[in-house]
Amino acid sequence: MANLQQGLTLLKTFRIVFLRIFIAAIIVMLPLLSFSQVDKTNLHKLSFQLQAEPEPVKKEVLSTFVTAVSDTTIFKRFLEKTTTKYSVHKYEQVNIFLLTAGIKYIFEQVLPRAEVLFIDRQRIAKEEVAVSNLDISTNKVSTIHSRFPQFDGNGLTVSVKENRPDTADIDFKGRYVSTNLSSPALSSHATIMSTIIGGAGNTYYEGYGVAAGSLISSSNFSTLLPEPDAAYQQYNITVQNHSYGTGIENFYGADAAAYDASVITRPSLMHVFSAGNSGSLTSTAGPYAGVNSYANLTGSFKMAKNIITVGHTDSLGIVLVPSSKGPAFDGRVKPELVAFGEDGSSGAAALVSGTSLVLQQTYKDLHGIMPSSSLIKAVLLNSADDAGPKGIDFLSGYGSLNALKAVQAIVGTKHFTGNINPNTTDAFALPIPSGLRQVKITLVWNDPPAQPNAAKALRNDLDLELSLPAASEIWKPWVLNSFPHIDSLQQLPVRKRDSLNNVEQVTLTNPVAGNYFVNVKGFNITTAAPQSYSIAYQFDTADRFVWYYPATTDNIIGGNSNILRWESTFTANSGQLEYSINNGNSWQLINNNVDLSKGTYKWNAPDTFATALLRMNIAPQIFLSDTFTISKRFNTYVGFNCSDSFMFYWNKIPGVSAFRVYQLGNRYMQPLLTTTDTSVILGKQTNPSLYYAVAPVLTSKTGVRTYGFNYTTQGVSCYIRTFTVQLSGNTGQLDLEIGSVYKVSTISWEKLTLNGYTSLRIVTAISGLLYSHTDVILSNGANTYRVKITLSNGQVIYSEPETIYYFGNDLYIVYPNPAGQYQPITILSNEPETTLAQVYNSIGQKVFELSLNDLVNSLPVGTLSKGFYLVRIVKANKLQTVLRFVVY
User: Is 260 helix (H, G, I), strand (E, B) or coil?
Assistant: First the structure.
């Protein structure tokens, strides 16, 4: 019996345990069961993020889904039979729909359809950190400003896709293009990006962007797709900057296909994306899931082929850890470039966007037509300086932006284009002279969009080779190992055929002179039309030294650390660096043993205002820099802002005998006058501009300008900067600050009495900008003062009146007393709490009640008739005091 009882107990226990396990299994399986109505064979159409979402059937919140289809006509018919909201983003090559629906509808109704190719949830873009301490000399942008000032993006328009910049910023004056594409939201990040791309430097030299002649527009990034093709054409947009991201995404989404299609439709359009600031993170989905710190670009749209993605470096060209790294989902080289951006890749992308505008204008001015984006991309990648590991890599792509070499490639026509058919070869003769350190050649083509979620994005496969027939030698392009393991991704490139990228690059170090050929082969072309392509090439001469920074238009900040920049192809390791501030008559040693290979040196410039030269001695040769300036910013002050004129001034600077004054014109700061004085008085009628700046004149050059300031917002009226009065014990303290002593004859302190204002004191010894006076005789109630300034020409200037309220030993005061019948009557309360003032007439009737909630409390004008009145002050239902006054 005992055994039977034990058996029943065990059976009962087993049933309970089994039931619990079964319930737990059901809970665990719920996410999977939610797909029960979804054909599992269709799940490959979803993005990785959408596949990973648990329990989709239960989520009925409306969302927007990006849906790519093969046949828009059939899909539209399907949608017209439903109540689903949708819009179409028209890119004929990819046929994208934006659907607003619940996810159950998407999974059960849309996903199974045969014409549906890809579905992803519309993501929210985030700005990828603003850039501070911009240094455009890092990527040789300041050098093109000096050597090619005519190339500034003039006549071209850039679109900054994010929120709207501050259109009132004077660095965009006269150049912001208002469109219906803009976001209603204002963003400081967008303002910074726009400034880096095309700021005019009107505010300060740090606000001088790459392409200061370009027009600037903005476009909302609430939809992560390109603008309609007609919009780019309507607003003449040739570059669009994208300094934003979502999360790490490793797939070729509909948005990537759309951007590839956008470029195919408008071959001159450049799309530039920030790579992201997730370089230390690891992808959790896709082919590179779990590979630490690689394949972490922030957005599937950055997987596009016909764009440029940009990582970021410090001011010495070192790729920073947060800079997002490649490869793309299918092993392609990403990012393609890096540029300066110590706080993130946003600013790095903006630098490349600005440089793209300059290159487009350069080509257009020389050839009369716009270049293809493939040509600009080829030039940018080919002219880049090596960064990160040697050669191409997944950290820096093809290197760090070198704006000067890019412009020189366009000006020197170091490029050519072509069209190729399947299984044919184009051969271009390339004579290579002796004395070269390296030759570099880059092939780029805009590849047709692939199907969203394709395992491999490349459709048309071209091959680049460099050959020397006389020696029977062939050099293939450099190719990286894209196998998803960190050891493979860190390997240096090898020469082999590339079957992944629509960019291929060949380099040859110390080439022998000869008649070489650049060969382009149409290995596999899937489209009916020939594939167009662009090639850029570059010769680097041996034993050559070039100064980059400072150049002739640059200013070194005196008393600060400044980074000097050059390029050297000498085999010598060191040089002697010196400077001169007397036109080369004498030289001061900076360093006797400078490492030439670094290309940079931090120099603490002397704290002076002067023109200067640098020289590098590489025995037996000497290399002089351009003449540049050493100066630093100084402050300006507004002296007065009167009805007919205004004055501003600055302090005397030792060694500087002249200054140039600038005023803001239609777009830019323009020279107004040169003076040997330290102040300027301008008439308002002949000088309508509100913004001005001043720069020191140093021989034939000008040093760095002051901040551009609006003279009307500096807190100075007609001579008076501030006038304040305050109670100090039983006296009144009056303080005055004026903007200038220019032509000031006397300063008078005046007090309001029953007979008007009377003088308390007249100051005749005018010296300095600060003045004060103490009134030792205060009246109970209001004590009102003003300042009277008399100029030497007899003109009189008054301040606004200021008042001190004095109570003496009283807590409450009524004034004026007596008061006229239609005169304002004020009750002062030295205890501004919840207190009542009850006004009674001479026969004891309460005629008015006022809550005393402030220091100054006024009765409405005309409330009381003529007569005698009592004011009972009541607090917490207790009488505090009784006041008396007369109305006449």
Answer: helix
The residues facing 884 across adjacent strands are 870
Q: Give the domain-ending residue among 500, 525, 540.
A: 540
Q: Considering the domain boundaries, does residue 851 fall inside one?
A: yes
Task: Give every CB contact of residue 423 below 8 A, 6+ residues apart in sequence.
Answer: 522, 523
pTM of the model: 0.84
Between residues 270 and 18, the one the model is more confident about: 270
Phi-psi region of 94 (alpha: psi -120 to 50; beta: other; left: phi over 0): alpha
Of 540, 563, 592, the one marking the end of a domain is 540
Q: Do 433 and 400 fall into the same domain?
A: yes
Q: Which domain holds residue 61?
A: 40-121
* pLDDT tens-digit map of 202-245: 999 989 999 999 999 999 998 889 999 999 999 999 999 999 99
Residues 95 and 134 in one domain: no
Any domain includes 33: no
Whole-angstrom distance, CA of residue 614 vs CA of residue 625: 5
Give pLDDT tens digits for 100-131.
Answer: 888 888 888 888 888 888 888 887 777 776 55
Cβ pair 174, 231 in contact under 8 A? no
The number of folded domains in the chain is: 6
Give the rounded distance of the alpha carbon of 44 from its chain centre.
Answer: 38
Residues 672 and 798 both lie in one domain: no
- CB of 260 within 8 A of CB of 311? no
For residues 200 and 196, give the distance between their C-alpha atoms in angstroms, rounded to a whole number. 9
Give the DSSP H or E segment for 825. Answer: strand 825-829
- Contact criterion met (CB below 8 Å) for 279 and 143: no
Residue type present at position 622: I
**746 pairs with which residues across the strands?**
790
CA–CA distance, 37 with 104 (Å, rounded to integer) = 10
- For residue 650, the one-letter residue type is W
Residue with tokens 């010769």: 539
Residue 884 contacts by C-beta under 8 Å, 6 or more apart in sequence? 868, 869, 870, 871
Indicate whether 370 and 500 sit together in one domain.
yes
Do residue 652 and residue 785 come from a single domain? no
Cis (ω within 30 of 0) for the bond into 818? yes
| DSSP character at residue 397 | B
Q: Does residue 4 fall inside a structural domain?
A: no
Q: Give the rounded distance of the alpha carbon of 33 from its chain centre.
A: 47
For residue 111, give the CATH number of its domain. Answer: 3.30.70
Are both 423 and 477 inside the same structural domain? yes
Which tokens hold the place of 115? Answer: 């014409």
For residue 259, give the nearest of 381, 44, 94, 458 by alpha carbon.
94
Closest Cα to residue 426, out of 490, 555, 522?
Answer: 522
**CATH value at residue 868:** 2.60.40.3080
C-alpha to C-alpha distance for 519 and 287, rounded to whole angstroms: 33
CB 370 within 8 A of CB 361: no
